[in-house]
Each structure stands twice: as structure tokens, then as C-alpha cells.
Amino acid sequence: MGKLKALKEKRATIYTSIDELRQATDGREMTAEEQQRWDTMLSDYDKADKAVEAEERFMDIQRKQAEQEVARRDSLLGQTVGEEYRRAFGDYLLNGASGISSESRAIIEQRAGIAGLSGGLIIPKTLASEIEMALKAYGGMFEAATILNTSHGGDLILPTVNDTNAKAAIVSEYDQSTKRAPSFGSVVLKAYTYRTPIIPVSQELIQDSAFDLDALLSRLLADSFSRGVNEDLTTGSGTGKPTGIVTAATACTTQAAAASIKLDDIIDLIKSVNSAYARNGKFMFNRNTLWELAKIKDQTGRYIWQDSTREGTPATLFGKQYVLNDDMADIGAGNASVLFGDLTKYNIRLVQSFRVIRLNELLAEYLSIGLFGFARVDGNLIDAGTNPVKKLVHAKS
Q: Which fold would CATH assign to domain 123-162+183-397?
């Protein structure tokens, strides 16, 4: 930094001399001696400027090299810490809370944020985050909706307000402003407990230190958990279970044919959603509907589906992205096969995070332990009467 500072000061000194000569000769021609000094100073300034740029470039390269070295060291350290955590986690699964070594206990408590391993309850943050990421991949609702994490399971009351018809108006000086009461309401989210089936894990598998237990558990638990929860978040009745987004969505006034979808149906569905929600709107449908939509052609015979032409850019339908949810109904009489609107208006309430329970004795005769996960969940569409999500319903016959 000292060299760069000196170079910048030198450049500034040359600039000062150039400016002084410019002001001194302002309004007249320079003498031959002054012109020579002027040309020399300009040349010196260019050299000083290039020297500053070269030093700044070198320092930028030096900084990047240092950052890469730190990242390399952190990566090596992270791999070491990751292996230590996996061994400690395996120690816990193999020996339980009472038989785990003090070293493994310290590693798990530090890495996973556990205040204690009593009662067979484990709450590893790394495992929970992997499961939540897997839920987004397996269940369309966790991908599309807004997820609210709460620390308690009491009723969560979310207020709603509908003031969409209110407009500003011109009011003459000293005239009274008009009064209008917006329509207030609320949506209550409860906390329904969902448990996965018990997963048997053999002692031999746990003892295999090369096996990634975190990845195994997150995949198995997320699979079974999402199958049950995503279905209710999609089509749940709201009685003793979440109110699914299909149940809560408002039907488009135009119905599709009993066994097909036309281009006009999609246009009417988009049109029926208020522009405030359609602006960031997305479609939701299952894979079977996806391929049926992909077959629709416009009047010139071209497919309306715009597949992604750039890597990382999602495919769109009428410029709108889509979310796949296999718990949505197929195209069929009386079914709601397509949703469109602001899907983030559907709120999923998740109490704390995913939990995993270790069962010591249940499968002991099979030389295995049992694991199951549970979480408390509810969901509903936050709709104040503005209908942020609409559904395309097929005629019954």
C-alpha cells in the first residue's frame, strides 16, 4: 500500500504542476519553453498514471491469490471437520446418547447446536437443512410457497386486508377527505404433527465409516415426509389437516373441457388473475399435464411451449414459469389440473425444524436401530378476497 500511495502522490504532484501552468497561460499562447514544459509534464503524467494502474492491478491479483489460498485452507479444514462430524454422528447412532464418547458428544453439540443428547432426540442443523432442501426438490409446495418457521406450536394468526377498490381522488382545498374502511380478516395456521415411518438402520451400515449417513437419512426421511405433507398442502380439506392450495384457490369462471386443455383455457386462466398477482405469477401442475400442455399449438401450428434455450433459465409458458407438483390432479372431468397466480401467497407453517428420533430396543433382535422423523406443519392460502391464485377446473361431463 505504501508504494501505491507514493505513486498516487507523484501523479497528483504532476497534475498540480500541469494545472498551475494551464492557469498561468490562460488567454495567451505559450512560449516555446512553456510548451516544452507542458509536453514533458503531460508525458510524465501518462507514465505516472500507468504506474498507478499497474500497481493497482498487481494488488488486485495479489488479493485474489490470497483469497484463493484462504478458500483452499478452509476447504481442507471443512473436509476434516466434516469427517469428524460423520464419525461422531455414527458413534451416536451406534451407541446411543448414553454410550457416545465425550469427544463425539462435543463435536455433535458444537456442529449441530444441540444443548444435550438426552431422550434419544437429535436435532442436527446440518441434517435438518439437508432435509428442508430435499423437501423443495421432492415436493412442489415447499418449492413454491412461503415457509414460516416458528418456535412454538400455538395458533398462528395471520391478518389479511382487502383494500383493492380504494383509489386516490382529487379533493378541492378545504374539502373533507372521503372515508373508507378496508375489509380486514385473518387466517389461522395450526401445527399438525407429521411422522415418517420407522426406518431400520443396521449396525453394519452404521459401522461402515465410508458411508454418508447424513445423505442417507436426509434422502429417506425427506422422501417419506414429503409424500404425506405435500399431498395435504396441495389438496388437504382443512379439516384436521392443512387447507391445500387447490382447495383454497378460486375457480376460474371459464371451465376447460372434461378431458382436454385448449390454448384459450390457459389465456382465460391468466386473464382471471389480478395483474398485481399475475405479474409474478407461476403455473402449477403435474407431469402428465405438463406434457399435455407441451402439445398445444397456436393457429400457425407452432408449439406455444417455450423451452429453455439458455442454461439455468427455466422453461416458460406465455413467459411465466411453472412448478411441478405430482399431487395435482390429472386432466379429467371435474378436476382442477392447473393453478396460476402468486404461489408465494400460500404460507407453510413449520414449527421449529425437522426432528429425528432414535429407537434403541425396537429392532434390537435384528441388530438394527430404528429412526423416524417428525415435524409440525400447517398451510393455507393468504387470500383476503383478492384471489391471488386461480385454478382451472374441467367440466364434469
A: phage-related protein like fold (3.90.1690)
